[in-house]
Design goal:
The complex is a heterodimer of chains A (212) and B (164).
Chain A lengths: L2 H14 L6 H8 L6 H29 L3 H32 L5 H40 L5 H10 L3 H46 L3
Helix pairs in contact in A: 3-4, 4-5, 5-7
Chain B lengths: L2 H11 L1 H11 L3 H18 L9 H14 L26 H14 L3 H11 L4 H8 L3 H25 L1
Classes of the chains: A mainly alpha (212), B mainly alpha (164).
Chain lengths: 212, 164
């Protein structure tokens, strides 16, 4: 049985086995919301963008209003760190707009979506991981050099009287555990959101590239 | 006439293209409705970039196939072919053509999303050059794939036909 034999009949059946839509029905559909994966990324990007903007203002305020010099420097620094990240998010948002209104071939479309998703996952992981050592180093240096005593920390030190080696050991263990935890959690979270989807799209690209 | 009115009229005239894609890519009625809506919205979004270099039908195939291939539903453990979608075979009918068509339909439904896209364009009377432009691979590659698809369909159709 050859495909040619059924060409006409299949064409006809495939095209008619559905509700017929009038112009009014189509107009009504246009007022609804689309939900492709690009829309999902756009939502994530908008969420991150808003979070970063709010964080920039909150951190900026804390940086200005705190009476401790360490906290002032710490939060002011993060206010500055968030600005380039907002620019990266804005760039990715623009890219999603270009893809959703494209006229690409099937292969180009798949490649663009995969590229965008991988870039988004990479930047997200990089930014999250970069924040950890920055947070620790800043907290350590600024806390060490703080002129005003911080009562709650002083009380802890007075109570347990740790030696310097114990403090170092605790700091290293804490930082290592947190870094590993955040790294795997972020990877797991991104994979859960987009990993399987990227894998499926890559398989399609691979299928398209197969020649032999 | 506004761009929206123009788009609606064009889409109404070419809606069969979307039906074909929805019927081949989605098994349940609800999923087909969702895909139809998704394709309509994507086409409307991309309509601003349609400059009329190609025919509206070719452009719509491209947008609709891009949407269908990247459209995912929560994974089901097993692909189920919904009999509702298949062409009707009247009870007690010995019409072999209907049975064979049904077997062919089942075989196409089992193809990968990429192979389905090629078959849809082939059924729409597109030549290899036009198919290669929509899919984005060379004409030779399309010819190789089409040969493989035909063989696969031949085997699968036989299998489905004998089990009926």
């Amino acid at each position: 049985m050859e495909l040619e034999e059924f060409k006409d009949i299949l064409n006809q059946q495939l095209a008619t086995d559905h509700l017929y839509r009038t112009e009014e029905d189509i107009a009504e559909l246009l007022s609804k919301k689309a939900n492709p994966v690009i829309a999902k990324i756009r939502k994530s990007l908008w969420f991150e963008m808003i979070t970063c903007i709010v964080a920039t203002f909150v951190f900026g305020y804390l940086g200005i209003s705190s009476k401790y010099a360490s906290i002032q420097i710490y939060f002011s620094f993060f206010t500055i760190v968030f600005i380039p990240y907002i620019i990266i998010i804005f760039y990715l948002l623009r890219k999603t707009n270009q893809i959703s209104s494209n006229n690409f071939s099937v292969k180009n479309n798949l490649q663009s979506i995969v590229q965008l998703l991988e870039e988004f996952m990479k930047r997200n992981l990089q930014f999250t991981m970069a924040l950890i050592p920055i947070c620790f180093i800043f907290a350590f240096i600024l806390g060490f050099n703080e002129k005003h005593p911080i009562d709650s920390i002083d009380q802890l030190i007075f109570q347990y009287k740790p030696t310097i080696s114990v403090v170092w050991l605790f700091a290293i263990l804490y930082m290592s555990a947190l870094s590993v935890g955040v790294y795997y959690f972020t990877k797991w979270y991104l994979k859960k959101l987009y990993g399987n989807y990227v894998k499926a799209l890559k398989n399609y690209i691979h299928e398209l590239e197969e020649t032999a | 006439m506004t761009a929206e009115q123009e788009f609606i009229r064009l889409l109404k005239d070419h809606q069969k293209i979307i039906y074909k894609i929805c019927n081949l890519y989605m098994q349940s009625h609800a999923d087909r409705e969702d895909l139809f809506q998704e394709i309509t919205l994507q086409a409307w979004k991309a309509y601003g970039n349609f400059r009329g270099d190609s025919k509206f039908s070719t452009w719509l195939y491209r947008v609709a196939l891009n949407t269908a291939i990247t459209f995912f539903r929560k994974e089901k453990k097993k692909i189920e072919i919904n009999v509702e979608v298949l062409p009707e075979v009247s009870e007690g009918s010995f019409d072999q053509i209907e049975e064979k068509t049904k077997a062919m339909y089942l075989a196409i439904a089992e193809l990968s999303k990429i192979d389905k896209a090629i078959v849809i364009l082939y059924l729409g009377d597109y030549n290899y050059n036009q198919i290669s432009e929509v899919i984005g691979i060379t004409q030779n590659n399309i010819a190789v794939k089409m040969n493989r698809i035909k063989l696969k369909l031949k085997e699968q159709t036989k299998k489905h036909f004998t089990t009926h």
